[in-house]
Amino acid sequence: MNTWTINRVVPLSTFVILIIIPQFVLAAEPYTVTVEHGVAVTMRDGTVLRADIYRPMAPGRFPVLLTRTPYDKHSDGDVDFGHKGAARGYVVINQDVRGRYTSDGEWYPFLHESDDGYDTVEWAAALPYSDGRVGMYGGSYVGATQMLAAIAHPPHLAGICPVVTASNYHDGWTYQGGAFEQWFNESWTSGLAQDTLNRFVRSHTNALNGIAKLPLTQYPLFELPQASSDTDLLHSLAPYFLDWVAHPGYDEYWKRWSIEDHYADISVPSLTVAAWYDIFLGGSLRNYVGVRLHSKNEAARRGQHLMVTIGGHAGSSRKVGDVDFGPAPPFDEDETTLSWYDYLFKNVANDFAHPKPVRLFVMGTNQWREEEDWPLARARNTRYFLRSDGQANSARGDGALVSATPRSDKPDQYIYDPANPAPTVGGPLCCDSGHLGPGPRDQRAVERRSDVLVYSTPPLEQDLEVTGPVQLELFAKSSAVDTDFTAKLVDVGPDGFAQNLTEGIVRARYRNSQEKTELMNPGQIYKFTVDLWATANVFRKGHTLRLEVSSSNFPRFDKNLNTGDNAAVGGKSVPAMNTIYHDAEHPSALILPILPTT
Q1: Active site residue 305
Q2: Measured between alpha carbons, how far is 282 from 150 in angstroms, rounded to an integer?
Q3: Average pLDDT of the residues in 348-356
Q4: CA 5 to mean position of chain CA atoms
Q5: Would the N or C end of the chain have less CB density within 10 A of its end CB?
Q6: What is the predicted pLDDT for the residue at 289?
């Protein structure tokens, strides 16, 4: 098979498949599709990556839609989209990223995606059947390959469509609020390691007996044997995971590929797709806002569109978790992507020509709605102050959310014991729903715990819409030098079903900066800000608006040992007595974006 290099086109000697695709709405007659497998592309350092090319078998030049994936370009979804896109008049290119499946090189997340993305875009633009415009598409890590390519600004990149992806691979991917995203990091890395294992076995057959015993499906990954004859073998499967654990703070390791530090380098229109309950919701929203405000040019700033659907990594049907959101929410990623590029590359006057660039799914009413921007200008940040007589422990306690400024309330206390953490129930999870279900789940079991403080409004007398960023300002102290504070926004129905909406965490030693740790003085009161990301939910009449506060959400996040030590490298834990203040001098408050009634 021939190798293709940048700016050089050579004849293909690949197997060609002809497929007739059923007629699409936007094409009077679908194109016949030809597929070229295993086309080699040489990167600037000589590494060869391989791609499949789906294109119309017709004269002329067509815009290119490119996806770069670590999940196997031969997956059903990528193959299906290749046929759909080519039948619709695009050249679709599916490429395995470096070190994955058919591509050469060593796999290390994020490290090579800017350079490899740049080189692949420019190669694709020079193909004889390309019209020179390249758009990228795909979700999760495939969204990261788009963002990392976009900040390198290859000249022929003309659009991106990142779906449910992050803005910073430290905060909002590997860590959140300073806490390690244990469930995601271990489940995702274990899945990735399987292909690394397969490649290793193929190239080192004499090591098969030792490596075949590796328990890739067991968690936590960082508790695998560290002192054995297999140590080097284990580390070779996921060296990046060990690097993530070794860099808990936001240092130069992470800054080299931060997206949000490089919004000014992005100069292309973008459709950003986010999702309520998605593990990358916060980063997706930051990407839209950041590029709209700071993009390289005015055309790119005007070319930003946002869609916020339901589920993302948590699910994509009308039912996500325990909640049926009705017939409106299903999101067709393929059709949305093709419609975006029909609008961008073919001037089709479809939904993206709407003067309002933001489309949100609003929970509670379970309807889609167009908006001028995000966050919504008409939303009013409203403080709901925490209140109790010192007995807010569990849903049976006296915790309340009130609009009046507190005066002399007694503080609430609970013991956080890392040996008995509050469990994760639903929420933004990935990538093992078989063991831990994501999305909206009934929180009543969690709210029975004495180490979970519960603050609620009375049943609402009328509908109340909360749409936008959500924060908790918390005044607290601990008996320990370090601990976590978690927060969860909950919608409680008249039947008692407690639906989690959005949540957050802050690790005390990172309360002021994720670059520099500052341990606490035991017994001293500090102000903490917990970022709960965002939501769009109508709390219906008769429902209760609720806040949960605790110090653990395990195994979504790792357990804080309360000692200042990194849990990933072991160490003893100690229980902590944590105290939440809500008086005139310490007005702890949940800050919600309330939409005025019309």
Answers
A1: no
A2: 19
A3: 95
A4: 33
A5: C
A6: 98
Closest residue by Cα to residue 9 from 85, 83, 86, 61: 61
Q: 278, 432, 482, 491: which is the annotated catalytic residue?
A: 278
What is the reported pLDDT for 454?
98
CB 440 within 8 A of CB 537: no
Domain end marker among 218, 247, 276 = 247
User: Among 178-182, 252-256, 594-598, which is the least confidently predicted range?
Assistant: 594-598
What's the CA gap between 467 and 471, in Å, rounded?
12
Domain count, the chain: 3
Please state, in angstroms and rounded to a whole number, the distance separating the CA atoms of residues 55 and 87: 8
Tally of CB atoms within 10 A around 319: 15
- Residue 122 parent element (H or E): helix 113-125
Q: Tokens standing for 171?
A: 């905060």
CATH of residue 126's domain is 3.40.50.1820
Active-site residue, from 103, 140, 295, 456: 140
User: From the candidates 112, 170, 313, 582, which is the catalytic residue?
Assistant: 313
Which of these three, 199, 222, 247, is where a domain ends? 247
SS3 511: coil
Q: Is the pLDDT score of 269 beyond 70?
A: yes
Identify whether 278 is a catalytic site residue: yes
Q: Has 230 been annotated as catalytic? A: no
pLDDT of residue 201: 65
Q: Are 353 and 206 within one domain?
A: no
* Same domain for 446 and 316: no
Domain that holds residue 556: 380-594
